[in-house]
Write a structure and sequence with these properties.
46% of the residues lie in helices and 13% in strands. With 379 residues, it is of the alpha+beta class. Strands 1, 2, 3, 4, 5, 8 and 9 form a seven-stranded antiparallel beta sheet that branches. Strand 10 and strand 11 form a beta hairpin. The longest helix has 23 residues.
């Protein structure tokens, strides 16, 4: 069974008024477990592009039960350290209360801040990255080529960023719009081979626009530091259970794509401009209206599109013991909505953005709807 793990970028916020706080360094000092010094039995924390966010890295896991525990433990670890410096962490993909800030942190981030101006100053966005193990770069590129048209569905299922600069944007995932201002972000063409992937990356770097390979921000890419495919399309999920659901489907997409590759099934011929339309629609509406069907490239009801995704990966979910959990997780998302719906509902009560952040803090750390035996299948 393929191992998988996640990276969650969490917002550091003042619990009284929801303002982002630049306290990542203090949180790392309190926690004492930066990623490079983490032990073998716990999630770890690291700083990110902005000091107002902290990244939680899980350990590689084999079962849904293990990953769920990692996600819970990572959020608790970050929040405990944040409390010690007068803050809380919330799984918000954009901050409801925010003004552009300079980029601190390490020398690389400072260089990016100087190079990219307002894009970098406004880039306080929190994503959710899923890593799934692969046997070789060639296998990884075969996966990237064969699953690219399904990635907008994962974006819709994660949508958690309706507010930006104190306003309701009308989008379910406005993070996607902010993030796609980076010149290398978004969907890519079919690569064809590991050599084709590297040639594209080298060509991009040769332009001098990306500062280094770490700025190859494709919606899914080969990880630089691990033998994994890295999914990068999703918002950080407000609910831990939704994060787990998306990770289960991501692993199943990898396994399904590898099977297709071995059987000689060619990559989908969906063009990159159409994939950009699919991403835009998922960003705009989340799970509340129609999405582009990955196989038809025309609008379909969300429930139909998600059902098609589950059918596509069903065999892999069954073999991993994840089918019941994935189905239940998706059903919960479609029933109660993603984090964007909770945020808007919290705002409507008193029209206070601080209430949005308070509700998000509570939801980030609560037990979800699927805390029963469904998640014990892989134990």
């Amino acid at each position: 069974m393929r191992t998988f793990g996640v990276e969650e970028e969490l917002l550091i916020a003042d619990p009284s008024d929801g303002t982002p706080l630049a306290l990542a360094a203090g949180i790392l000092d309190v926690a004492g477990t930066p990623a490079e010094e983490a032990g073998d039995d716990a999630p770890s924390l690291k700083s990110e592009f902005k000091q107002e966010q902290i990244e939680v890295n899980s350990l590689p896991c084999r079962t849904a039960y293990e990953l769920r525990a990692e996600i819970r433990a990572g959020r608790a670890l970050a929040d405990k350290a944040a409390r010690a410096v007068g803050a809380r962490v919330a799984a918000l993909a954009t901050p409801p209360v925010f003004h552009a800030t300079p980029t601190g942190g390490n020398q690389r981030y400072a260089a990016m801040g100087n190079e990219f101006g307002l894009i970098s100053r406004e880039q306080l966005t929190c994503g959710f990255h899923v890593h799934v193990s692969i046997e070789s770069p060639e296998e990884g590129v075969a996966v990237l080529d064969r699953m690219r048209h399904w990635l907008p569905v994962l974006l819709a299922l994660s949508a958690n960023s309706p507010f930006w600069m104190g306003a309701d944007t009308g989008f379910a995932s406005y993070r996607t719009q902010i993030w796609n201002r980076w010149p290398t972000a978004g969907p890519m063409d079919v690569f064809g081979s590991a050599e084709g992937y590297q040639a594209m990356a080298s060509s991009l770097l040769a332009t001098g626009v990306p500062l280094d390979e770490g700025m190859i921000y494709f919606d899914a890419r080969l990880s630089r530091g691990h033998p994994t495919v890295e999914f990068r399309v999703a918002d950080v999920c407000l609910y831990a259970e939704d994060a787990l659901t998306i990770a289960l489907i991501a692993r199943a997409l990898v396994e399904t794509s590898v099977g297709e590759w071995r059987e000689g099934v060619p990559p989908s011929g969906v063009s990159t401009p159409i994939l950009r339309m699919a991403n835009w629609k998922a960003s705009r509406f989340g799970v509340d209206q129609q999405l582009l069907h990955p196989l038809e490239q025309t609008p379909y009801p969300v429930a139909d599109v998600v059902a098609a995704l589950l059918r596509h990966v069903r065999r892999a979910l069954v073999e991993a013991g994840d089918l019941t959990a994935a189905r239940a997780g998706v059903a919960n998302i479609l029933r109660r909505g993603t984090g964007e719906r909770l945020q808007r509902e919290a705002y409507r009560r008193r029209h206070r953005l601080s209430d949005v952040v308070s509700a998000a803090i509570a939801s980030t750390h609560q037990d979800g709807d699927l805390s029963d035996a469904k998640y014990l299948l892989g134990r």
